[in-house]
Amino acid sequence: MIKDIFNQYEDKMKKAMEALRKELSTLRAGRATPALLEKVMVDYYGTPTAVNQVANVSVPEPRTIVIQPWEKTMVPAIEKAIMKSDLGMNPNSDGAIIRLNIPQLTQERRQELVKQVHKKSEESRVTVRNLRRDANDAVKKLEKDKLISEDEAKKGQEDIQKLTDKYIKEVDAVMAAKEKEIMEV
Asked: What number does CATH give the domain 34-101?
């Protein structure tokens, strides 16, 4: 029974980590990556659609993203969506292909991004801690309902704490890696 609770909450903590990694991948670190465009939605025949669903997105150089729409009529819509997004980039288009040049980040912008990384990491830590609380509550309920002994409950809570510590460390490692990537000039 405790094993089921442990596995259930371990899965949830893994998902919290995946969510953090995905969230941080969309932050611009001065390097071109297709993940930057994941949140940019373009109006595709009245439906908000991700850019990578209506075009090929490639990175031929470290500071350039090339967007090749599958339909030429989509070029103006994609340009408009990029300008409206919070990326702060101006698209260059030749009518068939859109090029995005990634400017060097200023020190100020880097510090702003690091703050965002810290904020998102703290949100993930809170999520992991909330999952720990829920798991501990589930173990206490088993003990209260006399389905497990006090020793089993204590051992279960210790295991849950070890799991929590593991994922908090992982959050810190992901945060440090992203911070290093952003501060790299």
From this structure: 3.30.1360.40
- Place 157 in a pLDDT band, splitting at 50, 70 and 90: very high
pLDDT at position 28 is 65
Predicted confidence (pLDDT) per residue in 73-108, tens digit: 888 888 888 888 877 778 888 888 999 888 777 888
pLDDT above 70 covers a percentage of the chain that reads 97
Q: Which two tokens stand for residue 185?
A: 């000039």
Residue 120, both tokens: 């998102």
pLDDT score recorded for residue 53 = 87
In CATH terms, the fold of domain 2-26+106-183 is Topoisomerase I; Chain A, domain 4 (1.10.132)
Bridge partner residues of 55 (DSSP): 69
Residue ranges per structural domain of the chain:
2-26+106-183, 34-101
Identical topology for domains 2-26+106-183 and 34-101: no
pTM of the model: 0.69
